[in-house]
Structures are given as structure tokens and as C-alpha cells.
């Protein structure tokens, strides 16, 4: 990871100063800050920023819901599955983005730099680790011991880890090739002919899966006439989720990291 794009408002002198300090800090390192030139008269600001975002490994956003350009760039980075760090006031972060890595904004640049450096060090996870069966238990056990390490794994890596874990244990699974948010990520077929929808939700360890996520999975199960469903999250579940699944006729299981560690026992309960 050696190219960083920073999204911020040029109208805030304080944030512009912090951004300049970040740029200065990395100027003589192997980290390159991709800088956008602000031109009030230009109509191609969005197109120029998308080119830079395409080329970045990490997208840092000084979030401001009132700035349409920042929100556009954030949405574009999300669509491109970029690694993202949000900097700002936690109360200003939209609910659907609270699972992203977050740094509290501080006037002390050293606090921000420390957290960026910590994120970069935690993110040095090689993709081949997630496809190597010998590494699965090591990754999962470390994830339980070190919440920051788990938070640093991006959604695509986590989904790959779960999928490969199922495959390496001899389970018959098939990736969902439709749009990613169609309600599930892959299908598990049991030897008895049971079809089980699997939905993987990579959240921060302190974030919780809500009823809306369960409803979407259940909706897909009903449409496809599926026998059971499993939500697998790196976070937690709200109390209302358990009450919800106990009140519906569909069979839905709630998994956490612990279930992945005890994959054999967890799978037996699905059969």
C-alpha cells in the first residue's frame, strides 16, 4: 500500500492545513500522496478526482456531509472497494458508514498520523493468506486476540477468507454471481440436498448487524425457496435481531468469528 488519496474540503483552512502536514510527513517516504488541484472554474473536478481515486491504495476522507464533492468521492471509493479511513466527528458519520475505519479528528497532527501509521501496519495482510488453508486458523485466532487486526481486514478479504474456509473444509459452496447486495454472498449445498444462503457482513468489531440486514436475507430466502440462511459477521448483533429470528418461520443462524473457529461444530448444526 503506497498511494494515498485524501478527500477534503478546500473551504476549511484547518483541514487543509492538516492535509498539508500529512503530505509533508510522507514526502520522503515510499508513501505517495495523490494530490488534487482545486480549481473553482473547472467543471471536470469530479472526473479528475476519480482518476486519482482509481490509482490509490488507501482513501482517506475528512468527512463533511454538507460537501457534495466529498460525499461523491467517498461514494466512488466505496464503489471501487478501496480501503477507507474516515476522519472527523463520529456523530457526523452516516449510520451505514459507521463500520468503516474511523479516526477522531484532532488538531494534533501527530494523533492523526499515529492512527494512519497503525492502520497501514495492520493492513499488511497478503491476499494469499486468505486462500491458504494452513493460514485460516492463524488469521482467525489472531482476529479474536486483536480486534484492531480484524478491523483492518477489508470486506472483500473477509468474504474471501470465509468462502475459502468453507471450501477447504470440503463444503460445496457456490459464489453468488449477481449484484453484490442481492441479499447473500454464496450458497451452501449439503449432502442431504439442503440449500443454505450465506451472507457475510464485515463490520468493525464494535458495530452491530441490524434487523434490516436479516430482513434482506430472509426476503432472498423466500424468493428462492431456500431451506436456511446464515449471517456471518465480524461484529456483533443488536438484541432485537435475536427476537426477530425467533419470531419468523424461516431458519436463520447468526454466526460470529467464534463460529468460524469452530467451523466443524457450527456446520453440524446446519445439517
Automatic annotation (TrEMBL):
Q: SUPFAM superfamilies, alphabetically?
A: N-(deoxy)ribosyltransferase-like, Restriction endonuclease-like
Q: Which UniProt keywords apply?
A: Endonuclease, Hydrolase, Nuclease
Task: Return the Pfam families for the record.
Answer: Mrr_cat
Q: Give the domain of life.
A: Bacteria
What biological process terms from GO does the record include? DNA restriction-modification system
Q: Which GO molecular function annotations are given, in alphabetical order?
A: DNA binding; restriction endodeoxyribonuclease activity
Q: What is this protein called?
A: Endonuclease
